[in-house]
Amino acid sequence: MGVHAEEAETYKIKGNDAFKAEKYEEAISLYSKAIELAEKDCRDLATYLKNRAAAYLKTKEYDRAIKDCDQALDIIPEDPKALFRRSQALESLERYEEAYRDAKAIFTVEPTNKAVQPVLARLHAIVQERARQSAQTSNKVDQMFKLAFKLEEDKEKREKAMSNLLVLAKESTGAEIMIKNGVVHKIQQLLKVEKNPDIYANAVRVISQLCKRDVNRTKQVIKVVGVPWFLEIIDSDNEERVNAAQYCLQTILDTFTGMDSKKEIKPDPQKCEEYKTEIDTLLTCLTYSITNTVISGLARDAIMELIMRNCHYSAINWADRFVEIKGLQRLLEVCSELEEYKYESAMNITPSSRTIAAACLARIYENMYYDEARQKFNSQVDDFIKGKLLTPDLESKVRVTVAITSLLRGPLDVGNYVISKEGIVEMILVMAQTDDPLQQRVACECLIAAASKKDKAKTIIDKGVDVLKKLYQCKNDAVRVRALVGLCKLGSFGGDDASIRPFAEGSTKKLAEACRKFLVNPSKDKDLRKWAAEGLSYLTLDADVKEKLVEDRAALQSLIELAKTGDQSCLYGVVTTLVNLCNAYEKQEVLPEMLELAKFAKHHVPEQHELDDPDFVNKRLTVLAKAGVTSGLVALAKTESHNSKELIARVFNAICSLQELRGIVVQQGGAKVLIPMALEGTKNGKKQAAQALARIGITINPEVAFPGQRNLEVVRPLVALLHPECSALENFEALMALCNLAGMNETTRNRILKEGGLTKIEQYMYEDHMMLQRAATQCICNLMQSEDVIRAFESQNDRAKYLYLLCQEEDEDTVMAAAGALCVLTSVSKSCCRRLLDLESWPETLRCVLAHNNKEIQYRGTYMLYNIVKGDKDMAAKLFETDVLEILMALTKLEDPAQKRTKDFAEKCLSEAEELGVIRKPQGGDQLQDPFTEENVSDDEVQ
Question: Of the CATH numbers 1.20.200.10, 3.30.70.380, 3.40.50.410, 1.25.40.10, which one belongs to the domain with range 3-113?
Answer without folding.
Answer: 1.25.40.10
